[in-house]
C-alpha cells in the first residue's frame, strides 16, 4: 500500500496496488462540486467504512475480541467497488 504519488509506484508493476483510502477520499471531496450526487454516495459510503473501523477499534477487534455480527449485505467496500465499476461502464 502507498499513497497515490506516481513516484511511489514500483517501475515494473508486479504487485496489486492499493492506494491510501484517505488520499482517494480527498479526491472525491475536491470534485464534489462537479459531481455532487456521485461524490455524495462515495463519501457517505466511506463515512460508514470509517464508522465501522472506529467501532472495531472500540471493541478491540484488532486485539482478538469477538467480531461484529456478520451482515447479510456485502461488505461496504465491495458494494462501493461494484457501484464505481457500474458507473464507469455506463459513462463510457
What report would you give on this structure?
The protein has helices at 21-31, 36-58, 76-91. α1 (21-31) packs antiparallel against α2 (36-58). The two termini are 29 Å apart. It is built from 3 helices and no strands. The model has no long low-confidence stretch (mean pLDDT 79). The protein has 92 residues and is mostly helical. It is globular, with a radius of gyration of 16 Å.
Radius of gyration: 16 Å
Number of beta strands:
0
Range of strand content:
under 5%
H/E series = HHH
Mean pLDDT: 79
What's the assembly state of these chains? single chain
Number of helical segments?
3
Give the biggest beta sheet. none
User: Which structural class do you get from the secondary structure elements?
Assistant: mainly alpha
Model regions low in confidence, pLDDT < 50 over at least 5 residues = none
Global outline? globular
| CA distance, first residue to last residue | 29 Å
Estimate percent helicity: 40-55%
Topology:
Blueprint: H1 21-31, H2 36-58, H3 76-91
Quick summary:
The chain is mostly helical. The protein has helices at 21-31, 36-58, 76-91.
Keywords:
single chain; globular; 54% helix; 3 helices; 0% strand
